[in-house]
Design brief:
TIM Barrel, alpha/beta, binds SN-glycerol-1-phosphate, 235 residues
C-alpha cells in the first residue's frame, strides 16, 4: 500500500478538510463526515492551536468509523498526539525562532510516538504574514515571514534538513491566502510536496493554489462557516 506521503507526492490536487476539535460540535460528526465523504476531499486533518487534552483523540475516534479517507494529525502541541489517526504531520515551525516549536514539542512527543504505528511525516511549517495576528503566532510567540527570499530559503533549508513536506500557512481564517507568487517561487526551488492553507474560501482560490504548484490545499474555516461549500467546489 502507498504511504500517505507517497500519495500526496504522486496524486495531483489533494484536498484536506481541517477539523479543529476546539471549534467542532461532536454531535454533528456523522452529518459533517457524510458531506466530506461525498465531496472531492482526499484527506482529513484534525488539530488546532488550542485544543483541550484528549479532545483530538475523542474526535478522531468518532470520525474513523465513518470514513475511508486517511486522517492526519495536525497538532498544535504534544497533547494532541494520538494513535487513533493514520499519520501525523510532525510540524516544525521553521518560520519562527522559538526552539520549543522547532524541536522541543517533538522531543516530548517521542514517548507517545514510540508506542504508536502512526506514519510520521516530517513537515516544515512556514507561517506567512497576512496582516492579521494568527493564533499560531500568539501561542508560539513567533513572527510570520514576510520576505519572499526568506520564505524560499526557509523551504529550501527544510528540504536540505530532510523534511518531507513544506506547509505554507497564512493562518486559520486568514484575510489573504498565500499568494501565487510565493507558491511558485517555493515550487521552483524545492522537490518535496507543498501544502497550502489558510484563508482559502473559493473555488478560484483553490485553483490558483494548485496552478501555482501546491500538491495539497487545506480548508478549515470555509467548511466550518458554510457546509454548502462542499457542494460548491464539486461543480
Ligand atoms: C489553518 O491552513 C489551515 O491551519 C486552514 O485554514 O481555516 O483558513 O481554511 P482555514
Amino acid at each position: 500500500m502507498k504511504s500517505i506521503l507517497q500519495h500526496i507526492k504522486t496524486e495531483k490536487r489533494n484536498l484536506a478538510v481541517l477539523i479543529d476539535p476546539d471549534k467542532f460540535n461532536l454531535e454533528n460528526v456523522s452529518q459533517f463526515i457524510d458531506k466530506v465523504n461525498k465531496s472531492i476531499a482526499t484527506h482529513i486533518f484534525v488539530g488546532g492551536s488550542l485544543v483541550l487534552d484528549k479532545a483530538t483523540e475523542v474526535l478522531i475516534t468518532a470520525i474513523k468509523p465513518l470514513t475511508k479517507l486517511p486522517v492526519l494529525l495536525f497538532p498544535g502541541d504534544v497533547c494532541q498526539v494520538t494513535n487513533k489517526a493514520d499519520a501525523i504531520l510532525f510540524l516544525s515551525l521553521t518560520s519562527g525562532r522559538n526552539p520549543e516549536y522547532i524541536i522541543g514539542q517533538h522531543v516530548k512527543a517521542v514517548s507517545k510516538l514510540r508506542h504508536c504505528d502512526l506514519e510520521v511525516i516530517p513537515t516544515s511549517y512556514i507561517l506567512i504574514d497576512d496582516g492579521k495576528k494568527t493564533a499560531t503566532q500568539k501561542v508560539t510567540n513567533t513572527e510570520p515571514l514576510t520576505n519572499l527570499q526568506e520564505i524560499v530559503d526557509t523551504a529550501k533549508a527544510s528540504e536540505l534538513l530532510g523534511m518531507q513536506l513544506v506547509y505554507l500557512e497564512a493562518g486559520s481564517g486568514a484575510k489573504q491566502e498565500v499568494k501565487e507568487t510565493i507558491i511558485k517561487a517555493v515550487k521552483a526551488e524545492i522537490n518535496i510536496p507543498i501544502i497550502v492553507g489558510g484563508g482559502i474560501k473559493s473555488k478560484f482560490a483553490i485553483k490558483k493554489a494548485f496552478r501555482a504548484g501546491a500538491n495539497m490545499v487545506v480548508i478549515g474555516t470555509a467548511f466550518e462557516l458554510d457546509e454548502d461549500f462542499f457542494e460548491e467546489i464539486k461543480r
